[in-house]
Amino acid sequence: MDYEKFIQAHRETNADITMAALPMDEQRPTASGLMKIDQEGRIVEFAEKPKGST
């Protein structure tokens, strides 16, 4: 991960917080939190270590 670009994007968008995440496939791992984002990259749903489908 290029942290310089990450920090630059955070500053340019004047965001309150910035998160790094990896895309997941349909096999939803229960060892990780899952989030859904909108077209602009904003988090619209989050599930901490979900059991079953969300």
Automatic annotation (TrEMBL):
Pfam family of the protein (one): NTP_transferase
Keywords: Allosteric enzyme, Nucleotide-binding, Nucleotidyltransferase, Starch biosynthesis, Transferase
Entries under InterPro entries matching the protein: ADP-Glc_PPase, NTP_transferase_dom, Nucleotide-diphossugar_trans
EC number: 2.7.7.27
Pathway named in the protein's UniProt entry: Glycan biosynthesis; starch biosynthesis
Domain Nucleotidyl transferase: 1-53
Function: This protein plays a role in synthesis of starch. It catalyzes the synthesis of the activated glycosyl donor, ADP-glucose from Glc-1-P and ATP.
Name of the protein described by the UniProt record: glucose-1-phosphate adenylyltransferase
Organism, scientific name: Arabis nemorensis
